[in-house]
Amino acid sequence: MINLILLGPPGAGKGTQAKRLEDKYGLKQLSTGDMLRAEIAAGSELGLKAKSIMDSGALVSDEIVIAMIASRMEQADCKNGVIFDGFPRTVAQAEALDKMLEAKGRPLSAVIELKVDEEALVKRLNNRIAETKARGEPVRGDDNEETLRKRLQVFREQTAPIIPYYDSKDMLQSVDGMAAIEVVEAELAKILQSAKAA
Ligand code: AP5
User: Fold this and answer.
1) Topology (CATH level 3) of domain 2-117+160-197
2) Alpha carbon separation from 146 to 15, 89, 126, 155, 158 (Å, rounded)
3) pLDDT of residue 197
């Protein structure tokens, strides 16, 4: 069973790659951002609470996202393995995930950091906004340049510390996220193949 973390700043390509790996390896993408946006769309109490936090570029509380992941992992479609996309995002979330996986007897297979150049992210975000508009869909409340800058700052301050956390456990692998989507996918596939063989 593969349990993989995709790590990287906003726009690094976590969602893009998670979807590709999901189809190819029968894994389930668990995106805390998508789950929170589903709560917002449903107009739930949690969604109402999360919306203003997300629109500001800040992080939703550890307790909320940890509880969401714990209950989602119980569902049958996660039994072959999962790709964590956008989770964990703080050292507290990483520690909680370690405990959760240990209790379930599901070890982490790999933590993959998508390394990207921050300036390219602004360009990618503007592409995503244009593509979303072209499809006639609503643009994400946090997809604008000002909030992206805030999200990048939050990544540096609150999420980047999980990189040495996993590195010290010898779990961390890095992939060049600036390469073309297909090239990144092929690099991730290699890591997954060796994790499967291990
Ligand atoms: P979340 O939804 O997780 O957003 P994010 O991490 O900011 O990441 P994005 O979805 O913007 O980017 P991505 O890395 O998935 O890139 P993508 O593949 O889309 O979180 C949103 C908010 O929710 C947070 O700010 C927070 O408030 C809250 N939240 C979520 N999880 C939380 C948690 N655990 N704890 C607390 N709060 C949480 O790609 C971007 C664009 O680039 C696309 O257009 C794509 O086509 C393009 N692209 C992708 N790869 C390439 C490539 N190799 N070359 C060229 N273009 C590419």
Assistant:
1) Rossmann fold (3.40.50)
2) 21, 20, 12, 14, 18
3) 72
| Residue range 41-79, pLDDT digits in tens | 999 999 999 999 999 999 999 999 999 999 999 999 999
Task: Report pLDDT digits (tens) over 86-115.
Answer: 999 999 999 999 999 999 999 999 999 999
Domain coordinates in residue numbering, the chain: 2-117+160-197
Q: Measuring from each residue's beta carbon to the nearest atom of ligand 1, which residues come in under 6 Å?
A: 8, 10-16, 31-33, 36, 53-54, 57-60, 65, 86-87, 89, 93, 124, 127-128, 142, 151, 177, 180-181, 184
The burial class, CB within 10 Å (0-12 / 13-18 / 19+), for 75 is exposed
Q: Which amino acid is at 81?
A: G
